[in-house]
Amino acid sequence: MAAAGLRRYSKGITELPPNITVQVFENPDQRPLTDWKSELSSPDVQPLQVGEQEAIAFSSTGLYEHDNVVVSTPDGKYVLRFSVGYFDANDPMRQDFQDIVSSLTFQ
Questions:
Q1: Strand 46-50 relative to strand 78-86, pairing
Q2: Long-range contacts: 73-78, Cβ < 8 Å, 24+?
Q3: Residue-wise pLDDT tens digits, 34-66
Q4: By C-alpha distance, which of 27, 32, 26 is closest to 45?
Q5: Minimal CA–CA distance to 51: which of 5, 107, 89?
Q6: Which contiguous run of DSSP H or E holds residue 100?
Q7: Residues near 1 by Cβ (< 8 Å), separated by ≥ 6?
Q8: DSSP one-letter code for 16
Q9: What is the pTM of this model?
Q10: Which residues, listed in sequence order, are joined to residue 72 by a DSSP beta bridge?
Q11: Residues 49 and 16 sit within 8 Å (Cβ to Cβ)
Q12: How far apart are CA 63 and CA 55, in angstroms?
């Protein structure tokens, strides 16, 4: 039996449902934010502010469509990548994602 929330396909492959993820990367060389996009990302990048920090937003595709936001910590030592996957553009999880990202602050 598959774990709760996993989908099982005919070949036994399982996957997690769309979700919101946060990844933290060390950035000792202070690489630009665009370096943290994946190969599946859209070339279109929109600048924005997150917690008074410069950030970028972009979409990507794969198993699901994704909204992504990448922001550096104020000291530049870390890069945070926030992502939400969704099946449908009207998925309420996309609004939850925006609420989370817009509520971020750095101290």
A1: unpaired
A2: 73/106, 74/106, 76/27, 76/30, 77/26, 77/27, 77/28, 78/24, 78/25, 78/26, 78/27
A3: 999 877 788 899 999 999 999 999 999 888 899
A4: 32
A5: 107
A6: helix 92-102
A7: none
A8: P
A9: 0.82
A10: 79
A11: no
A12: 25
